[in-house]
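Q: For a teaching session next week I want to show students how multiple molecules come together into a single three-dimensional assembly. I've collected the sequence lines for a complex. Could you give me the predicted structure tokens for the whole thing so I can convert them for display?
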Amino acid sequence: MRTIRTRFAPSPTGYMHVGNLRTALYAYLLAKKNNGTFILRIEDTDQERQVEGAVDIIYRTLAETGLVHDEGPDIGGPCGPYIQSQRKDIYKKYALELVEKGAAYYCFCDKERLDELRLVQEASKMPSKYDGHCRNLSREEVEQKLRDGVPYVIRQKIPEGGVTVFEDAVFGTVSTPNDSLDDNILLKSDGLPTYNFANVVDDHLMGITHVVRGTEYLSSTPKYNLLYEAFGWEIPVYVHCPPVMKDAHTKLSKRNGDASYEDLVAAGYLKEAVLNYIALLGWSPGGEQEVFTLPELVQAFDISGISKSPSIFDTNKLRWLNGEYIRRLSPEAFYDMARPWLDQGIHSDSIDKRAVAALLQPRCELLSEIPEQVDFLDKLPEYDTALYCHKKMKTDCENSLASLQAILPVLESVDDWTQESLHDALFTLIEKMGVKNGVVLWPLRVALSGKAFTPGGGIELALLLGKEQSLERVRHGIALLS
RNA sequence: GGCCCGUUGGUCAAGCGGUUAAGACGGCGGCCUCUCACGCCGCAAACAGGAGUUCGAUUCUCCUACGGGUCACCA
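A: Of course. Below is the structure for the complete assembly, covering every listed component.
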């Protein structure tokens, strides 16, 4: 069996959508699973839609996520160049070959005629389709016009009648009547090929064995196959992937303001988690495992697990998975990753950020939420005394005040400000008072944080804040409640 | 509108003629506990509808409905 060669062929027209990334991922996985080759090709035949810097985003994203290509514009390879605009001459030669073979023809219709044709067809509710005006021009007519310098395009000559059938790896057998296909343009009047054509030529020339792409190409695939057949080339295996949706009706897209890969990373998602999540969006490994490293994905990948219907991007699940990744990080790795966010929420130098990170790690699903989780350490927020009333803890303003008043001297007497000392001192107090733990510890935690929820309990917070600051906050609490 | 494709809980999904129709996220309840979270235990929640084929359909066929894609000198 031939070595499998797949390719990711984006147009440099903007950001990396998650749908795009997923297509790249599947192409990568398919190649690597079979010890094959993964190729990057830039499809920039549309002069007008180029976006500055878009190619860099593609390189950066692939590198960051570990989807490293074996051949591509930046690293070269045996089938270069890997940028379509640099392959211009190649396409014309093949287009002409097709004309010779009778599978394509020169068309001299100008834009005006085409627009008018479309209007008429729309008005009469006819399917809009090229009317074949130039389809049967004689050789003499063609040569005359060429000599006269009339602008031309080259169109594909779809056979009349018949049905084109092909096998898709995810959708199975797909058959389309040829009459529903249009004589599309292969070579534009600017000499550049359309996607339809460049794609086929490049995929063949680059030895692509498996074409992984979105379902938007499913219905034009018969036309590509007609091209392959006309050339006498081997048709690749098609793997059409359904789209990633924002909701049941709309696709996930930058245009709708949906998050791109970069946005997600900026929002505090780990790139591994994002990649893992999108791998599972529209593909099932079959087993129970949900957390996969890239190498594990390579091992587990199989085309048969790709689903036929669109899937909705679920932020909830991504969050969960991200939390799962965070919890699996070593304390050091998490600290390093959390550091920038920690710095945003805590400016004081007296707080031990490693200790905060340790408290945070099991309670953090999204890095970007860290600042607001820890900002109370910097400065006690203003809070309502209603916080002291907690039914389950059996606390209210009165017994909270009593507790804080009892706590104050106890804390003042703790010289050795450690977890053990604090714990011993406070639990001795609890025993002496003959109350439930919460009656003492809840007011303490509230006084220290001014918040309903915190990463850590009263003792842990006291330890972080230090003796002086803790005493001050307890006194403040007493004043508030008095 | 023509052509192509799809439809299992709210979401991701397993299932490939016979199952009590997995599992995960989310939701709800409980346990643990110095709050919250983690962890653990449990609950609710689905085969779009209708005809066939078959001893038997979530699985096969057809129709309907709904949804998506595509009909450019864009990719």
